[in-house]
Structure formats: structure tokens, C-alpha cells
Amino acid sequence: MNAILTIAGKEISDGMRNRWVLGATLLLAGLAFALTFLGSAPTGELGVKPLAVVVVSLASLTIFLMPLIALLISYDAIVGEVERGCMLLLLTYPVTRRQIMLGKFIGHVAILAIATVIGYGGAGVALAFGDNGDAQSWQAFATLIASSILLGAAFVALATWISASVRERGTAAGISIGLWLGFVLIYDVALMGLLVASKGWISDQVFPWLLLANPADIYRLLNLTAFENVRKFSGMAGLSEQAHFAPASLVVALLVWIAVPLVLANRTFARKES
Amino acid sequence: MNAMGKIVMPELETTAIAARGLGRHYGSHRAVDGLDFTLDAGTTLALIGHNGAGKTTLMKLILGLIRPTVGHLKVLGVEPAKASLEHRKQIGFLPENVAFHDELTGTQTLRYYAKLKQAPLQQCDDLLERVGLSFAAGRRVKTYSKGMRQRLGLAQALLGEPRLLLLDEPTTGLDPASRAEFFQIMHELSDRGATVIISSHILTELEAKTDLVAIMNTGHLAAFGPLDMLRREADLPVRITVATPHGIGKVLPPLEDLVQRSVAAEDGHSLQLFVHVEDKLAALARLTSLGDAVADLDIARPGLDEIYRHFSPEAAKRAGDAA
């Protein structure tokens, strides 16, 4: 356990040193503040938008950004150390491979958590000074922060698995970009195309499960359909009737998307020859 | 947890490493094959071999990073690939081309490794002092020279007072003074009972500073023993260089029966005689009896490189290719 924390601590301080923490925090904070205060400027309307609208816009942007940041932080977690030549030495220490992998995972998720809590939380605090937002909207905002970290963790786990599987950093980077494009951009378009082309072949029974096959879609469902007053603004009313998962089961689905890649990463890394 | 691991048999204490028919094959490629040797605790071993001879593979086997495909290996009484994490605390390793995170300072790097090895953090400052890095302890590793990184690597390997120390080509790229300090530290450790294995592809670089020498050639152990024993086994001739101001004609004939081979300089004023070790004194006696036909003489025992090449034809071939 101690070794995991030592390695996680090292990853976090590395993240501070090479500005990953700062960069991600500023990016998320910038977006959150922009969406909160400037979002309606083009329509000539200035001022703070209702909290529920902020949640919808932030969630939609997080789906693009969070997986990208997570993949960029973690894709070289293992293969990078191997390539630099640090891994050989580390493996001769009284540390197991699982500890190395978990330490890196926890460290990277902590970096994302720091950035999300400060970035989005800061915007939330600013919003709290205005008088908008009922209890339910605040609950939705808290869910947004927590589930964003889970979404990040799922992609950190995926990136760690990629990193344990390949021999070169470049390969890991390429697969990571492909994964991002696949899950964040192509999957939904492909799914939509499939729905149209199949003309009802894909029944209402199957469709919701296809959404669970993509962590980004689980995140979308969780944030845009779980709360009544968010749903209003999200344009997901129709979808939420079809994909009627309880928020708790969506959270479990995200946790599965974290656990499974981690287990696979652990297995791949354990079998790798040094 | 392995309760048996805590009971150390007394006779195992004296043996640091025991290899029996040890091999590591990758398909048809035999990186290491049929190694048999025993290394007593507290000895220093020089592991010599050309690139690709199997030195690093053997080190990885000893470290437990890879498993043997044939044979048996015991390190400090246990099979390294199945050893507990506790076992690894007793081993220090300096990899070839050691790499550290550039952004950390020397002290930060060493403290990180000390935490992972569960070694007392107070050791860090002492170790930096011992390897002569105190002056740069607060500087980032990216400002370090190759030699300084190597010293930091050594400090890292010394964390937790290891009983077995493996140094993979540690002196490559070091200046002679640093190299001497390296051997100084190695001897201090050996005096305290630690076993040290140091590898190199050049025997002369190690300056015969170890108790034992192992020469590896294409995965096999070509020779293993104290340097003097290898010298005897190789049975290489002694080279006597004679200054012959009046030409070689007065010198060579009287020694004809003792000399294995001779090389004369073009001007005839100098002659190299190769004689068997046992004939050395007889040859010298005759040379000194030749009066002013011999102005000066110089005796050279077979050098480390010659011994190495004798046992490692592969290395000799490569040296030939390079020339």
C-alpha cells in the first residue's frame, strides 16, 4: 500500500512540475467560467445562466475534453517508463507490478480530480454568489463534478491498459487518439446511422445497452437525464424514456469501465517480459 | 507470506549465488546456456563479455526479472523469480544506461527510491556524500553529466545496505579518477561482506580489481576463476622485448630452442621474443650472458585483453572486424 502511495505521490508531483495539473485546471476552469458567464453573449444577452443550463453545456464539453486529457496524461504511464529505461530499475525494487500500475493510475486520477474540483468547483462557487439554482440543480452540479472524475478515471484506466500492451510510446499515442475518436466522435454517429439504416431492426430493448458500451455515453446519460430540471434543457427527454437506467446503475456502469481495463492492464503488464 | 524464507540455513549464508545448468533460451536463440558456477558471499566478480554475450541476461536472471528456461538458480538462498519482495531489499542494481526523471533533484530522486526500498531516509545524504554528489544534491538531474548520473545510480543501488550488488557496465564513460572511486566503494562493500558483480565488455577497464573473473562468450561461460588461474589456464607466452644495438643475429640463435615466436624490428635494433612462462628465467639467464649484444630488455606478462581474447574468440573476431 505504501509503495502505491509513494508512486502515486510521485506522479502527482510530476504532474505539478510539468504543468499538467496547472494546464488542465486552467482549461477546465476557463471553460466553466466561460459557459457560466459568457455563454449567452452572442444572443446579446449577458449575465449568469440558470445552473441547469450550465450543467448541460459543461457536461457536453466534458465528454470531449476529459477523455482527451486523461488519455494524454496516461498513455505513456508504463511504456514511457520502459522506453526511458526507468522501469527495469523499478522492477528490481521491492514493489510489485500491480503496485506500480495502481500507483500510476491513482496519481493520474488525482491530477484529474484536482483539476476538475478546482476548475468546475470554482465556477460553482462563483455561481453560488448569484441567486440562481435550486437544490436539485446543485445536486446535478455535484454529480457533474463527481462523474467527470469517473469518466476521466475510465479513460486513464484504458490508457494504462494501452500503455501496458504496446512496445513503443508512439503506438500508445496513436491507439489513444483512435480510442478518443472512436468513443467520443464516431460511436454516436455510427450508432445513429445504424438506427436509421436498420429501420427498427435494433429494437428499443437493445439500443440502451449499446449506450452502456461507451463510457462517454454513460456519462452523457447520467448527467443529462438523471435530474428533471436538467433534462428539460438537454433535449434528451425522448432518449431518457428509452434508456431508463437508474443513476446508480449508470454509476456502476462507469465503475465497470474503470475496473475492467485496470484488470486487463494488470494482466498484460504481469505477463510482459522485462 | 513464506514462513520458510525466514529460516536461513547456515551453509546457504556462505553461498551468494549458485547456478546449475542455468539457461535462458528465446526460441532457438540461447541468450544464456549451461552456466554452472558458485559465488561465495563477500566475493567480487567481474563479468566480462562482448556485446550480446549474455551478461545482461544473466543479471536479469539473478535479479529475478526473467525466469530461467532450463536449469536452476539460487540467489541468497532463494529462487529469484519466485522470491518475496523482502528478498529484493537485499539487492542493489545499477542498470546499464541508468535513467532518472530529469525534473527531480538528486536528493529528491534518491529519497523516492529510498521510500520504495523502505530504507531510512537519513541514508540519502550520506550516500550522496559517499559517491561524491553532495555538491549537486539540490540540482535537477537534467543538469547532471553522464558520470554524475552514474554516481547517482550507484547511490541508488547502495540504498538499504544490500547484501548483493549488481553493476551493469558501471565504468563505461567514467574518467579514470571516478573509476578508481567506484572500485574503492566496491571494496568497502566487499569488506563488509557484500557480494559484488560488475560487468564490462573490456577486461582492462576493470583493472583486475575483482577476486574472480567470469568470461562469457555467446551465452556460455568460457572461463571462471581468479585472474591468476585464468592466466595459467590460457598459458599465453611471456613477451620479452630486447634492444639489440648490434643486430639480432647475435641474440636470436642462442635462444632458438626456448623461443616460440619472434618478431624483429625493421631496423634490426629491437626484437620481441615470445617464450613459455616456464622458460622465462632460462631465457633471461641466456640473454644477460650475451654481454653488450643486449642493451636493454623489458618483460611483459600476457595482458588482460590477451587473456580475454584467448577465452573469447568472439570478442577477438569483433576486435578484428573493428580494426
Explain how this protein is built.
The complex is a heterodimer of chains A (274) and B (323). Chain A is 80% helix and 0% strand. Chain A has 274 residues and is an all-alpha fold. Helices cover 33% and strands 26% of the residues of chain B. Chain B has twelve helices and 13 strands. In chain B, the strands form three sheets. Chain B has a six-stranded mixed beta sheet with strand order 5-6-7-3-8-9, sandwiched between helices. Chain B has a four-stranded antiparallel beta sheet with strand order 11-12-10-13, with no helix packed on it. In chain B, helix 4 packs across helix 5. Chain B starts with 9 loop residues before the first helix and ends with a helix. Classes of the chains: A mainly alpha (274), B alpha/beta (323). The interface between A and B is medium-sized, with 22 and 25 residues.
Overall SS class of chain A: mainly alpha
CATH architectural grouping of the largest domain in chain B: 3-Layer(aba) Sandwich
Shape summary of chain A: globular
Helix content of chain A: over 70%
Largest sheet of chain B: 6 strands, mixed
Could you report the average pLDDT of chain A, rounded to the nearest whole number? 86
Task: Give me the secondary-structure topology.
The complex is a heterodimer of chains A (274) and B (323).
Chain A: H1 2-17, H2 20-38, H3 51-74, H4 79-84, H5 86-91, H6 97-129, H7 135-165, H8 169-198, H9 207-212, H10 215-225, H11 228-234, H12 237-242, H13 247-271
Chain B: H1 10-13, E1 15-26, E2 29-40, E3 44-49, H2 55-63, E4 70-75, H3 85-88, E5 91-94, H4 106-117, H5 123-130, H6 146-158, E6 164-167, H7 176-191, E7 195-200, E8 212-217, E9 220-225, H8 227-234, E10 238-243, H9 252-255, E11 259-264, E12 270-275, H10 280-288, E13 296-300, H11 304-311, H12 313-322
Parallel strand pairs in B: 3-7, 3-8, 5-6, 6-7
Antiparallel strand pairs in B: 1-2, 1-4, 8-9, 10-12, 10-13, 11-12
Helix pairs in contact in B: 4-5, 5-6, 11-12
